[in-house]
Amino acid sequence: MDYAKARKKAEEIVSKMTAQEKMSQLLFNAPAIERLGIDEYNWWNEALHGVARAGTATVFPQAIMLAATFNPGLVNECADVISTEARAKYNKSVEYGDRDIFKGLTYWSPNINIFRDPRWGRGHETYGEDPFLTSVMGESFIKGVQGDGEFMKASACSKHFYAHSGPELDRHGFDAVISKKDEEETYLPAFYKTVKAGVSGVMGAYNRVNGIPANCMPVIKETLRGRWGFEGYFVSDCGALNDVYRHHHYTETAEEAAAAALRAGCDLNCGDCYSHLNEAYEEDLITDEDLTEAAVRLFTIRALLGEFEEKRPYSDIPFTKVDCREHRALNLKTAMQGAVLLKNENGFLPLDKSKALNIGVVGPNSVSVTALEGNYEGKASEYVTFADGIRRVFENSEIRVAQGCNYFIEEFCSWDGHRNIVSDGTAVASVSDITFLCLGLDSSCEGEGEGADGSGADRKSVGLPAVQRKLAKSVLDHCENVVVVIMCGSSMDIGEDILSRAKAVIYGWYPGSQGGLALAKLIAGEQSPCGKLPITVYDSEKPLPDMKDYSMKGRTYRFMKEEPLFPFGFGLNYTDIAFENAEILSETADEIKLAVTVKNSGGFDVTEKAQVYAKFSDSRTETPNCQLCAVKPVFVKSGEAVRVELAVDRYWIKAVDEDGVRREPDGEIALFIGASQPDGRSVSLGAPRPAEVKVK
To answer: pLDDT band at 449, cuts 50/70/90?
Structure first.
């Protein structure tokens, strides 16, 4: 993609506009300029895990489950499908004269904020708690969406620049106070890496960062465009510029807020604050040069998308590609790779699907479609709930299903009904040889809207809600063989009393439209589980730091002191894996190349997710407990061994000092290559011991 060529075309187009016409193009719902042959264009579109809010599309697993695949190449494939469907839908929208919201090609995805606090309601939109994993997944998604041709297939956008991870209810007036060290070590890396990967858009956040509204920060020009060389467009989050004067009180008026954002480098306003640019212009708060530069950046993107070509690129992609059989197959594959097996007592799973059993499926997510979808979702042409998947795969068995309870609410003598149904779930369990207990949440419980437990978008606790605990205990009392399936987008402590009695536990996330089938196939052993946790599962009995404190002290696997229930990077499979004979192949100033043998001595083929972690010792600069710095999926057949090479970017093994400067650590660095992070907890839960090498 040639930014210089596209910018030249944009400059030519914008040079013919009046100041008022330029202003009109800086709003997300940009009107047509008929005298110049410019069509109306609505910039707002979403594609977090599939084309969203625009009718039928493939609904891939939620972003947090994409991260749990630990497979950047697979995420790239999904993103390529997303942009294919985007073009197919766009081609028809243009043909039918529909240029409404969610019909364009500028997608405000991915969300690369760091999931630093497990209670944050929007954490499931992210790629988890680690800057490295977030970066590589974000890069892969962006490259898949945008493609590598002369024109962008679609435009991706990294959001929310640069520090937003709750609290949701306070986000319009909240100030995230961040140290230079945390800024460089945690909050900025994914934005830096995705800019270097060529992302065409960046979105600002609602909150302030160190006292300045996110869309008015000097860092937009100084760092994003200056040090990093970002050439794309910057857009405000929707309604965020009104917060500048209404809630942050950074300015007194709307025109002052619009001027402050435009001068800072915010090119596009999602909202209506830029409708006050004319007053700002008349009051000499902004110049024609400010308007021109923003308009040129925006039209550069439209030119890169091929809007002004005589024959638009990708116009031959047919509508038949939308949620087609091939895309549903990739959807299924992705969900199967993202599910995480946390416990499997004495090899209880997989189950023999040829046997005739009495199987119970109980719990609030047993037949839930919303728990498949997550949020920022499209509408699939087919949904396979968990109960549906069990029915399809275990065809010889008798399947009985009961909701058993709601997510949070239990009421007695309720005229609405369906408020006191634990006994119904217990009854199903009591006549079942095996019960699948499908617990968790959906987007009504964690997200942006009002939460089902009254807490708003964010969660109050990482523990399993009380009514679900009640159901689980009753089911466990009445059925000997219980498998717990957790469908949610964040850390969920189901409780030791449930965990210790369950035969197996699977994290199923929000697994997309084919998610129920994917989970059932894994349970039946059609493939070994191979997902890894992109988050830490915290013990709900232990206190968490104040959510409003943006210090990373005590947060995530990198800085926490307490032992987790399940560590970041952990995930079991159905076979026996070992990592042996690790060695450093080469070292340069930028990269370290490693090799390791991955041996499978068990009875299942598996796609193991090799992970490399750096551990620092004797460093005078405070460093993380350990830092993920490479991942690679490795397919190993039963009884075979594979020699694998991995590359470590030295950026990820630098020490960050208190001034936010990355430096060579003054102590020793050890690299651990394995199926989990190098901690005792992972090994005690069943992960193989990682191999170790020292960096010279």
So the answer is: low
- Angle ∠(346,440,342) on CA atoms, nearest 5: 25
Sequence ranges of the domains in the chain: 3-320, 329-559, 577-694
Angstrom distances, CA of residue 420 to CA of 121, 511, 616: 27, 28, 53
Position 401 pLDDT exceeds 70: yes
DSSP letter string, 608-651: EEEEEEEEEES-SS---S-EEEEEEEEEE-TT-EEEEEEEEEGG
CATH homologous superfamily of 329-559 equals Glycoside hydrolase family 3 C-terminal domain (3.40.50.1700)
Place of tokens 């000499």: 284
The domain 3-320 is placed in CATH, from the list 3.10.20.30, 1.10.490.10, 3.40.50.720, 3.20.20.300, at 3.20.20.300
The tokens 């006191």 sit on which residue? 420
Question: What's residue 454's pLDDT?
Answer: 52
Between the alpha carbon of residue 527 and those of residues 349, 351, 487, 561, 628, the distances in Å are 11, 12, 20, 35, 26
Q: Answer yes or no: is pLDDT of 217 > 90.
A: yes
> What count of Cα atoms within 13 Å lies in the side-chain half-sphere of residue 620?
3
Catalytic member of 80, 130, 237, 442: 237
> Which pLDDT band, with edges at 50, 70 and 90, does 243 fall under?
very high
Active site residue 237: yes
**Mean pLDDT for the chain overall:** 97
